[in-house]
Amino acid sequence: MNDHIAPPAPRPTPAPHPLGGATRFAVGALALAGAAWAVRAIWEIRLALAGEPASGPPDQGNGAHRPLTGLENQYHLVVSVCGVAVVLCAVAFLGWLGRARDNARELSGKRPRYSGLWVFLGWVVPVVNLWFPRGIVAEVHRDSAPGERLPRSVNVWWVLWLIGLFSGVGLMSADSTDQIIARAYTNVGTLLVSDAAIVGAAVAGVFVVRALTAVQQRREARTG
């Protein structure tokens, strides 16, 4: 007797979040971080060319430090600017990744393999930070564009990121700025290899952000 009662309408699929603003912010922050690190490399080359002063390295050992030269003071400033740029880049990239991940879930209807906390913790927890961030990015692409090949830029970005992170003179270096200055005087090559990897990772990251955003925009256009 209830044949006349229509079945409830299916719940509409949530609309994906527009990525335009987040993408522009992430791309700009990645470009800024890469440029800042390139400037850092230039200052390390300048230190190497100037040569270590006769008074020795800035850190004299046993808590003693000699007065810095003008070029060394400038390098301290450059390192500080790099630190600010890296923090800004991290905020922008993670904001974009969180939105892209939410969009991928809405487009695919699948529950993500990695919980939302890993979008942030995956970068800092030892061991898992070797593959979790890349895995999250790859999952976003897979859920947004089933069957499509993962962009090559993702693997390039991740390899360069790991080199820059774990090279011993890059983002995870425990050395003070004065100790890095001493390295620039004696072994600038290792510093420049790490710098090149970090700059390359930032450039590749721009391509990753743009590629995944384009994939989601195409998918939304087809399903919209």
In total, how many beta strands? Answer: 2
Q: Strand-residue fraction? A: under 5%
Mean pLDDT comes to: 88
- Helical residues, percent: 55-70%
Secondary structure tally, helices: 7
Describe this protein's structure.
It is built from seven helices and two strands; from the N terminus they run αββαααααα. It has one domain. Residues 1-15 have low confidence and may be disordered. The protein has 224 residues and is mainly α.
Task: Detail the topology: elements first, then pairings.
Elements: H1 20-50, E1 59-61, E2 64-65, H2 70-108, H3 118-121, H4 132-144, H5 152-166, H6 177-186, H7 188-223
Antiparallel strand pairs: 1-2
Helix pairs in contact: 1-2, 1-6, 1-7, 2-4, 2-7, 5-7
Provide a short characterization of the protein structure.
It contains seven helices and two strands, in the order αββαααααα. The chain has 224 residues and is mainly alpha-helical.
Essential attributes:
mainly alpha, 224 residues, two-stranded antiparallel sheet
